[in-house]
Amino acid sequence: MAHDDGELSALRREWNATAQYGRIRANWDPLDKRGLKNLFIEMLHREAIGAVARFDGNQAVLDLGCGTGVFEEYLGGKVRLAVGVDLSMAMLQQAVQARIPGVSFCLYDGTTLPFASQAFDIIIAKGLTYHLSDALLAALLRECQRALKPEGRLITIDNCSSNPRHQDGSIHKLLYRSSDALVKLFTANGLRVADRYPIRRGRSMLQYLIRYGFYGEKRIPELARRELETTKARGRFHSSYYVQCLHVCCPSGYVAGS
Ligand SMILES: C[S@@+](CC[C@H](N)C(=O)[O-])C[C@H]1O[C@@H](n2cnc3c(N)ncnc32)[C@H](O)[C@@H]1O
């Protein structure tokens, strides 16, 4: 068996409960009462993914683990098909209630994507991998490989840590892997890593200042852009806590231009 159903039930319970924090806070940091830190993270993700995905109005895009659908507000209208899937009904309810034009949402079992093979140009999975055991993640990666077109791309945003103390679930029960460990998992499950780089420091004074309201909402997009640029330029995958990293994977076997 590829995964254990106890893990899926626990994930479903946990995220159904987390949904109570509301649309913005539930996805990332529930303690962020003003929602500005969550907005900062979301803006940074949009910038990072937009630069890689180069949405051109023609792509079919799946957001795996879409949560309350905040990213879909950005995605809707930029692509031919935008679908968000999640295993948590309560998270998805908030996504659906937001009535985002041009986007569909779909509840699924957490392991088998309810889509035809080679249906998508791009699959995005942000904030997902470190919630899943190796076995469940491996099963989902094989599903991504199946659902991607041969020249398609999986774009993930993962909290990565090379500190063994952070890899065993001791921080908020999260399974932070090193970027190298993720690359091994991607590779073992039919994906080739075409690019990867760090995009956000896990802990920084800036994020505390944002969370406690030292910056107004208007400054957030600019601060997010700057954080992305500096973290990417520093190129450090390691920190004493975690670094958020972007990985771009293609189904293995496909060579661009072939
Ligand atoms: C940290 S939130 C990120 C939400 C969203 N991607 C974002 O960036 O705002 C993680 C999401 O992954 C979902 N999730 C957990 N396990 C999953 C699985 N096996 N398949 C799909 N989604 C899952 C949770 O329900 C939750 O909505």
General description of the model:
The structure is a single chain. The protein has eight helices and seven strands, in the order H-H-E-H-E-H-E-E-H-E-H-E-H-H-E. Helix 2 crosses helix 7. The chain is globular and about 45 Å long. The chain has a single domain (5-251), classed as Rossmann fold (3-Layer(aba) Sandwich). Strand 2, helix 4 (89-97) and strand 3 (103-107) form a beta-alpha-beta unit. The longest helix has 18 residues, at 36-53. A seven-stranded mixed beta sheet has the order 3-2-1-4-5-7-6, sandwiched between helices. The protein has 258 residues and is an alpha/beta fold. The protein starts with a helix and ends in a 7-residue tail after the last strand. S-adenosylmethionine binds at residues 11, 15, 27-28, 64-67, 70-71, 86-88, 91, 110, 126-128, 131-132.
Name a few traits of the molecule:
alpha/beta, seven-stranded mixed sheet, binds S-adenosylmethionine
Strand content: 15-25%
CATH superfamily, by name, is Vaccinia Virus protein VP39
CATH class: Alpha Beta
SSE topology string: HHEHEHEEHEHEHHE
Sheet with most strands: 7 strands, mixed
Beta strands, count? 7
Radius of gyration from CA coordinates: 17 Å
Per CATH, which architecture? 3-Layer(aba) Sandwich
**Residues in helix, %:** 25-40%
The chain-level structural class is alpha/beta
